[in-house]
Amino acid sequence: MNSLNYTKQNHHLGFVFGKRYKNLFNEVSSASIVLYRIAFGIIMCYEIYRYFKYNWIARYWINTKYNFTYWPFDFIKPLSGNGMYFLFGFMAILALFIMIGFLYRISTILFFLSFTYMFLLEQSRYLNHFYLIVLLSFVLIFIPANRSFSIDSKLFKGIKSNTIPLWSLWLLRFMVAIPLFYGGIAKINADWLVGQPLEIWLSKDLDFPIIGRFFTEKWMILFMSYAGLVLDLLFIPLLLFKRTRIFGFAIGLLFHLMNSRLFSIGIFPWFMMASTTLFFSPDWPIRLINYFRSSKIPSTTKNISIERLAPKQKQTIIALSIWVLLMLLIPLRHFVIPGNVSWTECGHKYAWHMKLRTKRAKGVFIVSALDSSFTKRISTTHILPKWQQKRVLARPPLIWQFANKLQRDYAKKGIDVAVYADIQAKLNGRAYQQFTDASVDLTKVPYPIFLADWILPLKTELK
After folding, report:
1. In the chain, what's the furthest Cα-to-Cα distance?
2. Where are the alpha helices (DSSP H) in 188-306?
3. Spatial distance between the Cα atoms of 268 and 179, rounded to a whole number of angstroms
4. Cβ within 8 Å of residue 123, ≥6 positions away
5. 368 phi and psi, to 5 degrees?
6. Buried b / exposed e across 340-356, counting CB within 10 Å, b at 16+?
7. 3-state secondary structure at position 364
8. Is it the case that residue 4 has pLDDT exceeding 80?
9. Is the pTM value of this prediction over 0.85?
10. By the 8 A CB rule, do 145 and 12 touch?
11. Whole-angstrom Cα distance, residue 412 to residue 406?
């Protein structure tokens, strides 16, 4: 009898989940995704414009002697001559094509490849929102966001439609939810819960409108720390439910506007504000237009009755499941790596640890000839620009790369050397303490993919 009940229960669960999977292929209005496509293109065009305006292309890739790459993409190098300018111009054209929906599939593929190439060129400039753009531009390749209000829909009549599969909308919502929710989880750490490093940052923004004068008060620092944590965790749940959606969206707008004013985080607040509109009804842009029109634009939704998933639909479900699982697990890897992630940096990237630490480092690299003919102490000050210096000494992968660069430079002169790093660092207002084991020859240890055992444990207490 128990076996029979268990079989019936499993059959019921299979039916329920099977039905949920089938619902993902229902067609809903494409209006919100079309608007998101346009916003994505506009924001990318604006970001590329900023790189030309502030001469960042030359600063980061042309006028630098050395770029710090990502493992295992060490073979990737910046384009020579004016190549990087052409690359950014090409990305601007692709972003424009995405915005107007022209050759959309080709444009999204090329934009993903171009932007990812640019992203992988310089590890010392890792930005969470650039990583998010890499992921989203990849996802957009598979989402038919050009079915309506696009040049493609005029040129290729076979793709024209006012609807889009429901899984497309939920996939984009999921991609927006991941950085916000994991950003909240990351704030549940000892430093953030006592107001650090927020206290350090707020002390520099006392001219912030209305509340800036309270930024030296402990109660305000703690209020903003806990408010940021709670909002990150609750923002997506508020958007998911119709009764709380408007409230959640309004709070989110205020939150992102404050972040834009307080921190130098580029397009991220504007990007997230545009992205959160995806949580409204799929046809919300049409409803908004109809509110001001006498002749109404019809909104289309198709509930498709599917008895059995087709092979292509099953493949879609498998691909979505694998992608979702990766997005959920990758940010958690630092929990199985020993040490404070903000100190060791092991597992810090791709985990949505946004604005959680202020870290400074100082020190030198010691180059010692293997024949004992000389020992030199080398500072990065006269070798690297300031924007690289402050990160290279504080990030284990960059320390390793620079040490091995020095070893290669001497090898070209026919000199075999060992390279050591004697570096001190401080985290979130703590006092400086020894960061690296200065007795380890970094040319003899592997690249720190997961763990750098030559990084000493954080022992300094927070004030």
Report:
1. 88
2. 190-193, 198-202, 218-240, 242-262, 268-275, 284-291
3. 11
4. 68, 69, 70, 395, 397, 398, 401
5. -125, 125
6. bbbbbbbbbbbbbbbbb
7. strand
8. no
9. yes
10. no
11. 10
For 391, what's the count of Cα atoms within 13 Å in the CB-facing half-sphere?
Answer: 16
Q: Number of helices (H) and strands (E), helices first, in the chain?
A: 18, 6
Separation between Cα atoms, residue 437 and residue 226, nearest integer Å? 36
Closest CA to 260 of 251, 250, 270: 270
Distance CA 327, CA 429 (A): 32
Q: Is the backbone peptide bond immediately before 397 cis, with ω within 30 degrees of 0?
A: no
Tell me the per-residue pLDDT of 260-281, one tens digit each, with 9 for 90 and over: 888 878 888 899 999 999 999 9
Amino acid at 168: S
What is the total residue count of the chain?
A: 463
320 — phi, psi (to 5°)? -65, -40
Q: Give me the residue label for tokens 């903003």.
A: 224
> 111-142: per-residue pLDDT in tens?
999 999 999 999 999 999 999 999 999 999 99
CA–CA distance, 439 with 420 (Å, rounded to integer): 7
In angstroms, the Cα distances linking 85 to 52, 55, 116, 127, 271 are 8, 10, 16, 21, 24
In terms of C-beta distances under 8 Å and separation of at least 24 residues, what long-range contacts does 115-118 make, across chains too?
115/91, 117/76, 117/87, 118/87, 118/88, 118/91
Euclidean distance between CA atoms 272 and 279, whole angstroms:
12
The one-letter amino acid code at 208 reads: F
Contact 400, 448 (CB under 8 A): yes
Task: Name the one residue in this structure whose structure tokens are 């650039």.
Answer: 130
Planar angle of CA 50, 113, 135, nearest 5 degrees: 80
What is the number of other CB atoms lying within 10 angstroms of the CB of residue 307? 5
Cα of 118 vs its chain's centroid, Å: 14
Closest CA to 361 of 441, 456, 448, 444: 456
Gap between the Cα atoms of 94 and 205, Å rounded:
38
- Residue 218's pLDDT is 93
425-459 pLDDT, tens digit each: 999 999 999 999 999 999 999 999 888 999 999 99
